[in-house]
Every structure is written in C-alpha cells, then in structure tokens.
Design a protein that fits this description.
alpha/beta, 24 helices, nucleotide-binding, phosphoglycerate kinase activity
C-alpha cells in the first residue's frame, strides 16, 4: 500500500477517503458478479446507456422505471453534437470549415427568402463568434448555362457575399489552405473553396484528399443534410482530421424532423406512401408497417399491394420481383391488425387521345388508359379517415405520371393535410412532391413539418446508417437522474474512461465510500455485465454508462451535482500500425472537457503498459489543457507506483508477467 499512502496523504488529494477494512484487494471475489446465460440475455433490451440495478426486483422493473435511459441502438448515432450547444468562446480565432448545402441555395436563386436565411444562419453565427470561416460546397455544372451565379467560383463567391453581407474570397485550385496567404485573412473573414465536384477525391472519400481539405481547420460544421446518405470526403473523411465535428443549425433542424418520423408517441399514426419501385423500398415499407397504425398506398406502389390483395391489375403495372415482398407486408399488417388502404379511383389519360382525361375505377379495366393521379373518390376516402389519426406521414408522389398538369389529386391531398395540421394533427411531408404541392396551393407558411430530400428519409427508413450523420461527434441524449443513481449525488465524482469489465471501479467503490464512481465504456456487453454485478452490490456510489466518452464526457459529467475530482484513463488499446491512432481515445475535445470540469487540485491519472501510449496521452493533456494541467509531483520517469492500491485487470496481467507499467498523475491548477 506504499503507493496508496503516497497519493492519498497528499493535501492536494481530497477526492478519496479510504475506508478502514480488513478486506484486502482480491479481484477474484468479484468474479461472481459477471453472470452469463439467461440472466444477461434478459438485460439486453436494446439498451445503449446504463441503469442502476440494486436487486432482482429492480432489474425486472428497470425498463418501465428508467425509460429515459433506453436508446435504440439502430438510431443512437442520430444524437450528435451540434453547433448550438458548442461553447461560443471556443470558436473565437478557430478555423472552422462549413460544408454548405448549395442545392438549397441554388434552389432560391433570386431574392433572399426565410428558408435561405435559415440555411446561412450557421455561417453568420460563426462569423459573429469571430471564427475564421471556410466554406466548402459543390454545385452541378449543368446549372452554369442558365445561372450566371454559378458560372465560376468568383461569381458564386459574389453571390454568397450578397446574402451574407460579408466579402467572400474564392480560393482557386486544390483544396486546403496551402495556397492561401494567411495574412490576407486579416482583411477578409470568409473563404470559399473550389467546387468539390471538380475533384475525384471528393466522391471517393479519399483519405489524402480529406486531409488536404481539412488542412488548417480545427472544427468541422456540417450543414448539408441532403448529403447525409452519401460517403464523401467533405462530409465523412474530413471528420478524421478535425478535433470537433458538429451539426450546423440547418442540419440540426432537419435531423430533428427526421427523428420525428419514427417517434410513435403521437398515435394513432398513419403513413400515406407513394411513388414507385416497390422492391427497392420494401425494407422501408416494412419499417413503416411496424411503426404505423395504418398505411395508405398511392402512386405506383398501390398496384403492388392491390395485386397482393388479389385484385386484378394490368401486368404492365406489376413489378414481378416485388410480389413476395408485397405479400409479406400484407401479412405483417394482418398480424398487427393494421389497416391497409389503396386508391378506389384514378385520374387517367386516354392513350388514343392524349388530351382526354377521365376518372376510372382502380379495380376496373384500365386498358387504353394510363393512370395519372388519384381520383376524387380516393380523396374523399382519405379525408374521411384522416380525423381518426393524430399523426400523418406523407412520403412519395401520388401521381402515376410525371406531367405537371395532372397534379389535381396531389394538390387536393395537400389541402386535406393542411387542414389536418390546423386541427392539432402532426403532419410530416417528405419529398418535393409533397412539399411543393402544399406550398403551391396554400401560398403561405405551413404548420406541417417538411423534409424535402426524400432519398435521405427512404435510406433512414430502410434502417441504414446515414454516413454524414454517423461521422459527427455524439452527445449523450438523456439527463441521468443522479439522485436515483447515487445515494448522495453531491459527493466528489471519480470517472474511469474505458472502464472495461469494471473490476477496478468495483474495488475502488468498496474502499472509498466517500466518493461516487462512474465508469464510461463503449462496449455495451461489458456495461451490461457490470450492471448485473451491481445487483449484488449494496452501496449506491457506483454507476456505469455505455457511451463514447470522447465526445459525450462533457454532457454526462457536467450534469452531475458532485464536483469532478479524479479522471482515470488506463491502458487504451494501442494501434501499432498507425502511429497517430495509438492514443486515439484521448482527443482534444475530451481533454478540454476534462480540464473545464475538473475541480481545482483535481487530478488526471494516466496509465499504460506501452510507454509511447502514455507519452502520447500526457502530451495531449498538457497541450490542450489550456495551461490548467501540470504534472503532479515526481512521476519517477513514468515509473511511479499505483497510488490507489487497486489494480485494473490488465494491470494485474502485465505485472504478473514481470512487465512494467508506465504511469503519471496530472493536477489542475
């Protein structure tokens, strides 16, 4: 216990008060905590964060009592760090790269509109925060012939300047700041890089191109939500080279709308689904049938459902490979007692006389007619069932033909949904077909929630990870009720980052009852085992959370009433193939969060069996600690003794084979 006495007797270390006990440190005594088999299986209820388990009865009731802490793993990546919640003072003087959605801008060529102002809010906010802003974007070169604003990078920079009321300086040539003279930035606040579509590395998500693009930038802000489904260097690759990757204001707002699609708190919930290509959309349709309390198929998709229900449908309207998928969806609907609706009549074009149109029964003979849009009887049916639902999703076109003049049905559907939105019904419109039809008819702002990019939504509903969102830093989405987690939440807090199997914290919590202990671990299975072990643990001064502490540390720890007194990082996995990855857990964002939240004289304990890993972690903390962290005493050339008298599992393994451990202690001044 020599090392323990050395550290704990220090007047600068108030965070631990050892409890006198005859029980020695025996890791083996905890082996019974980590039960497998059916006990562990019961706990795997799609939980991403942890919950406190004190007894068997509490385990059984945990899902009901702690709904706040349950996160669906399939959508947990959607909880991202946003510019809105990033400390403004950390933006001043930083080089911030913004991925702008030019498609949104170019859709508003001409006078500035409210929606355009919203898209540019991110850049204006950064400029006001005195950040050095770089804009990267891309635009289709086919627009150049009709729109002089995008004829060249110079004209596009001038176009942006007119909206921002700030001079935008174009940088020709390759990406990055290598060709830009830094002294010019004193006079000019915003830089615009060349059209990214001119570089192959953009679409290929080239690592070299991403690194060049990010050169000189420290913070990345993605405000191009419409590209979330693509893997690009400017939305995915660049995040590897910036210490913080955030969602811009426009991106954050669109993401919030996307999440609302799968929010089923507003029931009954019906989806009006249109468009074509049933087979490609089948995974998304299966998702909707599991979420909604009713589905109304329109457009070409309705023919596949009608065929599956045994109705006569002309062969030219059937996707042969999609019949089995349609039957499966119908079966799921029957199992869940979910009604499926389809058009009762259609507006059709006469094949012999293109100028003739008429209304035809959808179950009747369509020979000689081409379906164009849903008919009046169908609209009456929709209008009659809408009041039965509290939430409505409309995604996909109602039309069977792309001709603009045959959009009567879609326009009238927009009117029906607009009225529903004013009757306390939540209405979500997805895609240009839905959004534009409504706006064209109403001519005013709507209470409906709009998402113009249908491709992103379809990919999301298919259950696929959206790369542009997944690449951003994550935040912890819920507030932990610390008064429930800990017996006394005001006690000093000790956080172990990468807590692994929890043996270190279990023993620390037993020995030092005058502190609270929190383990942050990415591996959910390990956290579940630790939680099951806590069912046998009497004291309430220990808690585990499954999370990526690198980006969520601040949001979790800042909400705890107890002051942060100690942070430990022990033996992060080294990557010997890539030198820059040897201490990848310790990034600038984590270091700054620790330095900000640590109390004065609070400590950071770093340990590894690989000396280069320890040196890398130590360098990161001293470099990005804003001068608040110093080496605490003499670490004996990184060969100091363990100051706690409690060894981690890996530490015991290393020492048992006679290898050295490298340690250092830092202190906040």
């Amino acid at each position: 216990m020599q090392g323990c006495n050395f550290q704990l007797s220090s007047s600068r270390s108030p965070w631990l008060e050892p409890r006198m006990s005859s029980i020695g440190f025996q890791v083996a005594t905890h082996s019974g905590y980590f039960l497998g088999g059916s006990g562990l299986c019961r706990l795997k209820c799609r939980v991403q964060c942890s919950q406190l388990w004190q007894s068997t009865s509490l385990v059984n009731n945990q899902k009901e009592e702690d709904k706040y802490s349950c996160i669906d793993q399939s959508t947990s990546y959607l909880h991202v760090q946003s510019l809105r919640n990033f400390p403004t003072e950390k933006l001043c003087g930083e080089v911030v790269m913004v991925r702008l959605d030019s498609a949104f801008l170019l859709g508003h060529l001409g006078p500035c509109t409210f929606s355009l102002e919203r898209a540019l809010l991110t850049i204006k906010y950064l400029y006001k925060a005195r950040a050095k802003v770089i804009i990267v974007t891309s635009w289709d070169t086919t627009l150049q012939s009709n729109n002089p604003e995008v004829k060249s990078i110079d004209s596009f920079a001038e176009y942006l300047s007119s909206f921002l009321q700030v001079e935008v300086i174009p940088v020709d040539g390759g990406p990055g700041l290598t060709s830009f003279k830094k002294e010019e930035w004193v006079q000019n606040s915003i830089i615009l890089f060349e059209n990214l579509l001119n570089f192959r590395g953009e679409v290929a998500n080239s690592n070299d191109f991403s690194q060049k693009l990010a050169s000189g930038a420290t913070i990345f802000v993605n405000d191009s939500f419409s590209l979330s489904h693509k893997i690009l260097a400017s939305t995915v690759g660049i995040t590897r080279f910036c210490y913080a990757s955030l969602a811009g204001f426009h991106f954050d707002e669109e993401l919030t709308r996307l999440i609302k699609i799968t929010d089923t708190t507003g029931r009954p919930y019906i989806a009006i689904v249109g468009g074509g290509n049933f087979l490609r959309k089948a995974p998304a349709l299966r998702m909707l049938i599991s979420l909604c309390d009713g589905l109304f198929f329109v457009g070409k998709l309705s023919f596949q459902i009608m065929k599956g229900l045994g109705m006569p449908v002309p062969s030219q309207f059937i996707e042969r490979n999609a019949i089995m998928e349609a039957l499966q969806i119908i079966q799921v609907a029957r199992d869940r007692n979910v009604p499926i609706y389809y058009p009762t009549d259609l507006w059709c074009l006469n094949n012999d006389n293109c100028g003739t149109s008429g209304v035809t029964n959808s179950a009747g003979q369509l020979d000689g007619w081409t379906p164009a849009d849903i008919g009046p009887s169908t609209l009456e049916k929709i209008s009659s069932i809408i009041p039965l639902y509290k939430k409505i999703l409309w995604i996909g076109s109602t039309k069977y033909d792309l001709a603009e003049e045959f959009s009567v049905g879609a326009t009238q559907l927009g009117q029906i949904l607009e009225k529903a939105s004013f009757d306390s019904c939540e209405v979500i419109l997805v895609g240009n077909a839905a959004c534009n039809t409504l706006r064209r008819k109403t001519g005013s702002s709507s209470q409906c929630i709009e998402l113009k990019n249908a491709t992103v939504v379809w990919e999301f509903l298919k259950g696929r990870i959206l790369p542009g969102i997944a690449a951003l830093d994550k935040r912890y989405p819920y507030r932990i009720p610390w008064s429930t987690v800990f017996c006394d939440s005001t006690l000093p807090l000790v956080v172990d980052i990468g807590s692994g199997n929890g043996l270190f914290l279990f023993e620390m919590a037993k020995r030092y009852e005058c502190s609270n202990f929190l383990g942050l671990e990415m591996n959910e299975k390990l956290v579940l085992r630790c939680l099951q072990g806590m069912a046998l643990y009497e004291k309430r001064n220990l808690y585990f959370v499954s999370t990526n502490a690198t980006s969520t540390f601040h949001s979790i720890v800042s909400s705890c009433p107890g002051r942060l007194s100690l942070v430990t990082i022990q033996c992060p996995n080294p990557d010997f193939n890539k030198e820059q990855n040897r201490w990848r857990m310790v990034r600038r964002m984590l270091v700054e969060a620790v330095a900000d939240l640590l109390q004065t004289n609070g400590q950071v304990y770093l340990q590894s069996d690989v000396e280069s890993v320890l040196l890398g972690m130590k360098e990161q903390f001293l470099s990005y600690g804003n001068g608040q962290l110093v080496v605490d005493g003499d670490d004996c050339g990184h060969r100091m003794e363990n100051p706690f008298g409690v060894a981690s599992d890996w530490e015991r393994h290393v020492l048992a084979r006679g290898a050295p451990m490298y340690r250092t202690m830092l202190r906040k001044v």
